[in-house]
From TrEMBL, chain A:
One of its GO terms (biological process) is amino acid metabolic process. CDD domains: AAT_like. PANTHER family: BIFUNCTIONAL ASPARTATE AMINOTRANSFERASE AND GLUTAMATE/ASPARTATE-PREPHENATE AMINOTRANSFERASE-RELATED (PTHR43795), INACTIVE 1-AMINOCYCLOPROPANE-1-CARBOXYLATE SYNTHASE-LIKE PROTEIN 2-RELATED (PTHR43795:SF1). The keyword Cytoplasm does not apply. This is 1-aminocyclopropane-1-carboxylate synthase homolog (inactive) like. It comes from the Eukaryota. It comes from Pan paniscus (Pygmy chimpanzee).
TrEMBL record, chain B:
Belongs to the class-I pyridoxal-phosphate-dependent aminotransferase family. One of its GO terms (biological process) is amino acid metabolic process. Keywords: Pyridoxal phosphate. It comes from the Eukaryota. Residues 490-501 have a biased composition (Polar residues). It comes from Pan paniscus. Residues 480-501 are annotated as: Disordered. The gene is EXT2. Does not catalyze the synthesis of 1-aminocyclopropane-1-carboxylate but is capable of catalyzing the deamination of L-vinylglycine. This is 1-aminocyclopropane-1-carboxylate synthase-like protein 1. InterPro entries: Aminotransferase_I/II_large (IPR004839), Ethylene_sulfur-biosynth (IPR050478), PyrdxlP-dep_Trfase (IPR015424), PyrdxlP-dep_Trfase_major (IPR015421), PyrdxlP-dep_Trfase_small (IPR015422). GO terms for molecular function: pyridoxal phosphate binding; transaminase activity. PANTHER family: 1-AMINOCYCLOPROPANE-1-CARBOXYLATE SYNTHASE-LIKE PROTEIN 1 (PTHR43795:SF17), BIFUNCTIONAL ASPARTATE AMINOTRANSFERASE AND GLUTAMATE/ASPARTATE-PREPHENATE AMINOTRANSFERASE-RELATED (PTHR43795). Gene3D superfamilies: Aspartate Aminotransferase, domain 1, Type I PLP-dependent aspartate aminotransferase-like (Major domain).
Length: 571, 501
């Protein structure tokens, strides 16, 4: 029962009136149940702390403990039920985990102290309500971490916006999915070459991936990454998604507690993947938005910063095993030049670090004037045995539901060790066939898919950036990926992560899902990632996305003014 | 007692400084032959020592210590299977290739399945299937799974979709359950002989061990049949684990059993479940062969058919299409548990064990088609399994070889003890090699942690012509008249593959 804490912040009911739909009954019930849980816990603590040492007393205590277990399980279940009722109206939120302090209570305290309407009542300890005595500690950790990270996403899954059926549903500008070319993909996947049910596809596969698919991946990467020599299918391992590849790599390259360096802000999924199974720490190499003498452009990654972060980590006694690079970068959309890339790789070689390069957005560079250079295009790698490349179809082909990710590594040991995870991250033979057909059709990709996709991305990007300019919102203007990295600092007062989180919640209240900088380990509060790769009609014609977005910012602005007035009057 | 690492992954590695790493790195581009010859020298480490980083040779300088152990799993477990793949039997192209009677796959019904999967209702493509979805599995599929299991497991009450989690196969499920139910180093009890790959599934990510409940072939005392599982044996194994300081968190039961081909009666099941409840153990019941009971007289009962489970919150059932629908390459498995905490925790890991939306759609269509399953697939599948089973068991009887098999699963548990002069596992391995040299791949008892040397698993669910040829080769070996010369060639003296079902 170690996960249960004594203090249980009671949610404030202040914002009941502001809820889009009436779920207040759940909130009230939930409040009562949480009170009950607290009271019960205290009661049992008193009961059991009075224990003596005699056999009878101990037996008595044991009986009490059993009762307690039963009651707390029942209450947990009640809370979970209420939670699911309440979250559909998003009255209750478990805070997203910040790396340093999960379930940070400060937000709630602050909101209560300041007398502000707390946009989302804090239930840091209702995290504990998710868990039971049936799980191991790591099971609890996994469950809580997942719940707190994906609760908003799950709420969205249950209540999606639809232009006719559910106009009040969630609009998702947070999940990096490319929905612009669903028509092309749907059509392509329905063609007759996609369907194959041969015996061999129904039998146990080669766990590294079917040979035909690995050959195709090698050919595809040779061509699209402009590799100087043909890539070898034996260096390819195919798993069900890039996060699986990353997780497997973290397992085989690090022991628990060891670490990777990652320039921050970076894709939050890595933090997730390294923690759930592998227990590997990600050490951020903090980048700054400000342009200075050494920082010639915003969020610039330099070798100095890498070295500094590495030395600092070593001083703290951490064992750093590698460097993770994302190129094109997520969430910045930056592309590394071959020269910078080479410097980073040389830095890694100098310190015997592995380099994991995630190039999952490599075909989503939509400005023709910019050339993406894959690490596989280099004539010679400084340390090819420690350079591991990840690519998948989720982003570039907009089929995240396919579950496909590939590893390319020259290191046979790493490839073998990752292959052992083939059992646990395998892809259906039928799917492998479809993927092979998809990647094989270079003509369709070159003449139809990529040009259309890039055109649509460009248009959507143009639209969203024009809107942002009109709103005078600064953003990091890049031409790759499915997202814009925007700066909402001016809506935060004071400029803290708490305020960032509160703004995030305000978006949620208005059924708008965005990703906030903290989950990318961004050092400066106020940054958000906005996904624009949604169908233009949804983005534009309905004007729902942007209208809601503007409404929230307007609301925030007004709240800021009110707050400033209050502060002034208090003085 | 344990197959698994006795030490924590964190155990210090044989020290590898940066300089030493580079040295080793340069020797890396060795050719295949070098690789093979090294394998030869590298004896199968005594399983007990697997987790000892020193055991896992230090020639791998790029990996972490757990990475080295993981690689060892891959190298050793896959070797035999790779030998088979390099020389696979093909009626026309490679008639002298290896016949695989080792891997538990049902190859009898691909015609039926191929036909069903290519029907037009299977080819649906729509955006929602191509995008991120509920990690527990699409709701439409979970609903179908719940209905399917309610019907085929004869559940007294309808099963609920919220208790279903869908993943890419049973292996992933073992891994996820091990991770969320146990801390590293804790254990599950498992009666032996058992499907050996579970060892790897629960170890790779979960880093947990299996505590064996050894069963004997001899019928003594209270036993009424060979390899009988009793509560006394469970209790004893549990006590033994405790005395060694190992914390046991659960019990794994496979029913129908692999490799025994046996089923537990409802009374037996009830006893085991009550035992587990008494010790607050989780029970994972693997029912992956539940529809592959081809003898009507075998009264198979799913644990989900019991009127009342002793401890429903700690009873977790798994099923998959690999065996019952003969599609091990499809990668579809499912968990049924009433425990929402467990379901949620497993679902939290599903990000890493997801399967394509299109396949999820196809699975839902398949499971929904009760008419085809009941009227076409199951009767035909059972008839073919029975015919193949009859053939192999007749052959064995003619050879005077004792065996166990009651009409469930794809395999017969064969007693070849009389062919081992000294009755050791070394001799068992030698016999296995002689089979492989004579181009027939079998699984030997040690891979199932069988206590007695000399047991082999014969998989019979293959096409008649391959089965006949396979049995012919078996006969040759047992008669001491192998066609292939006795001297073992390097490429064939590799380790067996029983890491797949």
């Amino acid at each position: 029962m170690s996960h249960r804490s004594d203090t249980l912040p009671v949610p404030s009911g202040q914002r009941r009136g502001r809820v889009p739909r009436d779920h207040s009954i759940y909130t009230q019930l939930l409040e009562i149940t949480l009170h009950l849980q607290q009271a019960m816990t205290e009661h049992f603590v008193q009961l059991t702390s009075r224990q003596g040492l005699s056999l009878e007393e101990r037996r008595h205590t044991e009986a009490i403990c059993e009762h307690e277990a039963l009651l707390s399980r029942l209450i947990c279940r009640m809370i979970n039920l209420l939670q699911s009722g309440a979250t559909s109206g998003l009255e209750l939120q478990v805070p997203l985990p910040s790396e340093d302090s999960r379930g940070d209570v400060r937000y709630g305290q602050r909101a209560q102290l300041s007398g502000q309407p707390d946009p989302v009542p804090q239930l840091s300890d209702c995290e504990a309500a998710f868990v039971s005595h049936d799980l191991s500690n790591r099971g609890i950790d996994i469950s809580v971490f997942y719940q707190s990270s994906f609760q908003d996403y799950n709420a969205y899954q249950k209540d999606k916006y639809h232009k006719d059926k559910n106009t009040l549903g969630f609009i998702n500008l947070g999940t990096s999915e490319n929905k612009l070319c669903m028509d092309l993909m749907t059509e392509r996947l329905q063609e007759s070459d996609m369907n194959c049910t041969e015996d061999t596809l129904l039998q146990y596969p080669d766990w590294r991936g079917q040979p035909f698919l690995r050959e195709e991946v090698a050919r595809f990467l040779t061509y699209y990454c402009r590799a100087p020599t043909r890539l070898d299918p034996e260096n390819v391992v195919v798993l069900n998604g890039c996060c699986s590849v990353f997780s497997a790599l973290a397992m085989v390259l690090c022991d628990p507690g060891e670490a990777f360096l990652v320039p921050a802000p970076f894709y939050g999924g890595f933090a997730f993947s390294s923690r759930l199974y592998a227990k590997v720490e990600l050490i951020p190499v903090h980048l700054e938005s400000e342009v200075t003498v050494t920082n010639t452009h915003p969020f610039q990654l330099t070798v100095d910063k890498l070295e500094e972060a590495l030395l600092e980590a070593r001083l703290e006694g951490k064992k750093v095993r590698g460097l993770v690079l994302i190129n094109p970068q997520n969430p910045l959309g930056d592309i590394y030049s071959p020269e910078s890339l080479m410097k980073y790789l040389e830095f890694a070689k100098r310190y015997n670090l592995h380099v994991i390069i995630d190039e999952i957005y490599m075909l989503s560079v939509f400005d023709e004037s910019i050339t993406f250079h894959s690490v596989l295009s280099m004539k010679s790698l400084p340390d090819s045995n420690r350079t591991h490349v990840i690519w998948g179809t989720s982003k570039d082909f907009g089929i995240s539901g396919f579950r496909f990710g590939a590893l390319y590594t020259h290191n046979k040991e790493v490839a073998s060790a990752v292959s052992a995870f083939g059992y646990l991250h395998s892809i259906s033979g039928i799917t492998q066939h479809k993927l092979c057909q998809l990647l094989q059709n270079t003509e369709w990709i070159d003449k139809v898919y990529v040009p259309t996709n890039c055109y649509r991305l460009r248009e959507a990007h143009k639209y969203i950036t024009a809107e942002l300019k009109a709103l005078e919102i600064p953003f990091h203007n890049r031409s790759s990926g499915l997202y814009v990295w925007i700066n909402l600092k001016k809506y935060l007062d004071p400029c803290t992560f708490e305020e960032e989180w509160l703004l995030y919640c305000r978006f949620l209240d208005n059924k708008l899902l965005l990703s906030r900088g903290k989950t990318y380990m961004c050092k400066e509060p106020g940054w958000f990632r906005l996904i624009f790769a949604d169908e233009l009609p949804r983005l534009k014609l309905d004007e729902w996305n942007m209208r809601r977005f503007c409404d929230v910012l307007q609301e925030q602005k007004e709240a800021l003014i009110v707050k400033q007035l209050e502060d002034a009057m208090r003085e | 007692m344990f197959t698994l690492p006795q030490k924590d992954f964190r155990a210090p590695t044989t020290c590898l400084g940066p300089a030493c790493m580079q040295d080793l790195g340069s020797s890396h581009g060795e050719d295949l032959e070098g690789e093979c010859s090294r394998k030869l020298d590298q004896k199968l480490p005594e399983l007990r020592g697997v987790g000892d980083p020193a055991m896992i040779s230090s020639d791998t300088s790029y990996l972490s210590s757990r990475g080295r152990m993981i690689k060892w799993f891959w190298d050793s477990a896959e070797e035999g299977y790779r030998t088979y793949h390099m020389d696979e039997y093909d009626e026309d192209k490679n008639p002298s290739g290896i016949i695989n009677l080792g891997t538990s796959e049902n190859k009898l019904c691909f015609d039926l399945l191929s036909w069903r999967l290519s029907q037009s209702d299977m080819q649906r493509v729509e955006p929602s299937l191509l995008q991120y979805a509920d990690w527990r599995g699409h709701l439409f599929l979970r609903e179908e799974v719940a209905k399917f299991l309610s019907f085929y497991c004869k559940s007294p009450v309808p099963l609920r979709p919220e208790n279903v989690v869908v993943l890419n196969g049973g292996a992933s499920l073992f891994s996820a359950l091990a991770t969320v139910l146990c801390e590293a180093g804790e254990a599950f009890l498992i009666p032996t002989p058992y499907y050996g790959a579970i060892t790897q599934h629960v170890c790779l990510y979960g880093n947990i061990r299996l505590a064996y409940v050894y069963l004997d072939s001899e019928v003594t005392g209270l036993d009424t049949c060979p390899f009988q599982l009793t509560v006394e044996k469970l209790e004893m194994a549990l006590r033994e684990a405790h005395s060694e300081g190992v914390k046991v968190k659960g019990l794994i039961l496979i029913s129908p059993q692999n490799p025994l081909g046996d089923v537990y009666s409802p009374e037996e099941l009830q006893e085991y479940l009550v035992f587990a409840k008494r010790h607050r153990l989780h029970v994972i019941v693997d029912e992956v062969y539940m529809l592959s009971v081809f003898e009507k007289s075998v009264g198979y009962r799913s644990v989900l058919s019991l009127e009342r489970l002793p401890d429903p919150q700690r009873t977790h059932v798994m099923w998959a299409t690999s065996k019952d629908f003969g599609m091990s390459g499809l990668r579809f498995g499912t968990l049924y548990t009433e425990n929402q905490d467990v379901a949620t925790a497993v679902a939290s890991l599903c990000r890493y064990h997801g399967l394509s939306g299109l396949v999820q759609y196809q699975m839902a269509q398949l499971l929904r088609d009760r008419d085809w399953i009941n009227q076409v697939y199951l009767p035909e599948n059972h008839a073919r399994l029975k015919a193949a089973h009859t053939y192999v068991s007749e052959e064995l009887r003619a050879l005077g070889i004792p065996f166990l098999s009651r009409g469930a699963g794809f395999f017969i548990w064969v007693d070849l003890r009389k062919y081992l002069p000294k009755g050791t596992f070394e001799e068992e391995m030698l016999l296995w090699r002689r089979f492989l040299d004579n181009k027939v791949l079998l699984s030997f008892g040690k891979a199932f942690e069988c206590k007695e040397p000399g047991w082999f698993r014969f998989v019979f669910s293959d096409q008649a012509h391959r089965l006949c040829l396979g049995m012919q080769r078996v006969r040759q070996v047992l008669a001491g008249k192998s066609q292939v010369a006795e001297d073992p060639r390097p490429s064939q003296s590799q380790e067996p593959s029983d890491q797949r079902r």
